[in-house]
Amino acid sequence: MKIGVLALQGAVSEHIRSLESAGAEAVAVKRTEELQDLHGLVIPGGESTTIGKLMRKYGFMDAVRDFAAQGKPVFGTCAGLIILASEIEGQEEAHLGLMNMTVARNAFGRQRESFETDLDVKGIDNPIRAVFIRAPLIKSVGAGVEVLSTYKGEIVTARQGRFLAASYHPELTDDYRLHAYFLEMAKEAAASKA
Ligand code: GLN
Questions:
Q1: Residues facing residue 175 across a β-bridge
Q2: What is the ipTM of this complex?
């Protein structure tokens, strides 16, 4: 499986390392043409306004929507989750809007800008290690979205078909099981096409 990591801004090399640990071939994606031969795409953490701006500038909004329309999986972490959401609290405009959910940015407050915790995720046997950095929360999900984990009652991991979103940074630990989970999604998608 060849998985791309959108490399406009944010935590790119860490995702590449985690994807490789999970057994994928992983590449940084800087131009829309590079989406062509991928089986899945990761949109990393960083700053969602900046990533959104650069995606618009370089043609990635339509390109990633096309990619998704071909049934190929997309995984957004932290800022990447915000990019996937159909609604962002307090903002007029969403970005890709591929996942039916409302998110709130920087939702854990200043005193808890960053922290680590062990998180139970549906579909993964034991808790995973999660690093939250100025993290967004999923305030509500709409039809078709399955909640995979909560932290103190708030939704922090969700899946809608071939889209996966996490509020935190799974790429900043040595625990690559969420990447392995995404890789399985990519394998299923590729197999259903063959
Ligand atoms: N706070 C950032 C945003 O709103 C996301 C933080 C992150 O990706 N670590 O875009």
A1: none
A2: 0.94
